[in-house]
Amino acid sequence: MKIELEKVLPQDIERRSMEIIARELGDRRLEEENADVIKRVIHTTADFDYAENLIFSPGAVERGRAALRAGCHIVTDTQMAKAGINKGRLARLGGEVHCFMSDEDVAKSAKEHGTTRAAASMDKALSLPGPIIYAIGNAPTALVSLYEQMEEGLVRPALVIGVPVGFVNVIPAKELMLGASVPYIVARGRKGGSNVAAAICNALLYGIGER
Amino acid sequence: MKIELEKVLPQDIERRSMEIIARELGDRRLEEENADVIKRVIHTTADFDYAENLIFSPGAVERGRAALRAGCHIVTDTQMAKAGINKGRLARLGGEVHCFMSDEDVAKSAKEHGTTRAAASMDKALSLPGPIIYAIGNAPTALVSLYEQMEEGLVRPALVIGVPVGFVNVIPAKELMLGASVPYIVARGRKGGSNVAAAICNALLYGIGER
Q: Minimal Cα–Cα distance from A135 to chain B, Å?
């Protein structure tokens, strides 16, 4: 079988992809400060819905980058997002990614409290020195738990990336975060995922590299 | 701010999600043997496009499960998919997940041959004892490289999960695999991803557990 492959050098694939995305977005106007993030999420998912779904609090991207430049750590609710975040680049800024989902004490605490491991992992994150960027790509319970911590004054995130995916309490958890008074990037609706969470973190990181 | 959260116990969230997915699929008829995989991918992405996009060669799901039961290994092109696959369950069947993308010899070989690390990692996979399930969630070049190996008689995969995502050569690479005479599960079009690759592997694994 013969197929037509476009001849693109390995180092040019991403640039070429971004050109195609920009072309297909056409007249759809992205806010300049958010365009990097939106385009990288579309690059990761091939899903143009994210041109509409992603909601940014004012200055969220710049706040996130400022935090990363200052060595901010990232807490995520999935090992997949942790795997996808560019940890080398983060480390060169002084940061690190943490995911407590597989920790035994988190599993134990979740069982004791009748909650999810994701929610329990947010409690464990309180022990980290802040401020922290939270990248929630899977569990709405993590987002709700984080919101409650914020309401109780226990934590003040540098940025909340709220992109859990799914069908049970995902939409209300995100709407909750959209009412919060911290910098946020939220994928409105059901869509999101650990790949989206990682893509947003990387878009923030790569934007720093380009300066 | 007050929002309405549905009261669902942690252990019931997945079952409840699957109920919602089944309800929303409504009259859309999924082939019985493929339904587990399709529903898990929708569960992972909240994207009902996959009810249409996923193309299965006849008996692909059963062939994949038979291979896994026999201790088949999985090779993937992303650390994220590796992170997302249920490695405990795979190990209990005798299998293991391999991702060679970060290996120094793969980076070196890619540079020397002017190809992608993904393609070079497929060459490295030839050293594994077969048969292998390939779960390609990111790079179309990996899928093309694998197809060429098959054409040359170098490899005979137990199953190809061909779900790279993106804009450059993704569609032709998948169409190529749809013409191959091995068991495959392919996400037609641009969509896919490491999360989709992992979800398909897990749907195969969980189907074995239920027997």
A: 15
Give yes or no for A179 touching B (CB within 8 A). yes
Model pLDDT for residues A16-62, shown as the tens digit of each residue: 999 999 999 988 889 999 999 999 999 999 999 999 999 999 999 99
- Best interface-test mutation with B: which of A144, A150, A167 has the largest number of B CBs within 10 A? A167
Active site residue B43: yes
Domain count, chain B: 1
Whichever domain contains B33, its CATH number is 3.40.50.10230
Asked if the model's pLDDT at residue B16 lies above 60, the reply is: yes
Residue A177 predicted with pLDDT over 80: yes
Dist CA A130 CA B96 (whole Å): 37
Q: State both tokens at B38.
A: 């399709």
CB-based contact (8 Å) between A166 and chain B?
yes
List pLDDT tens digits, range A114-144: 989 999 999 999 999 989 999 999 999 999 9
Largest interatomic CA distance in chain A = 62
Tens of pLDDT along A184-209? 999 999 999 999 999 999 999 999 96
A9 touching chain B per CB within 8 A: yes
Contact yes or no for B10 and A79 at CB 8 A: no
Residues B64-98: tens digit of each pLDDT: 999 999 999 999 999 999 999 999 999 999 999 99
Domain that residue B188 falls in? 10-209
Instruction: For residues B152 and A115, give the distance between their C-alpha atoms in angstroms, rounded to a whole number.
Output: 53
B16: contact with A, CB 8 A cutoff: yes
Answer whether residue B99 is part of any domain.
yes
ipTM of the complex: 0.94
For residue A76, the number of C-alpha atoms closer than 13 Å in the C-beta half-sphere is 28
Nearest CA-CA distance, residue A26 and chain B, Å:
15
Q: In this complex, which of A10, A83, A192 lies closest to B80 when CB atoms are compared?
A: A83
Instruction: Judge whether B19 lies within some domain.
Output: yes
B116 vs B134: CA distance, rounded Å? 17
Identity of residue B42: I
Q: Rounded distance, CA B69 to CA B66, Å?
A: 5
CA distance to partner chain B, nearest, from residue A28 (Å):
18
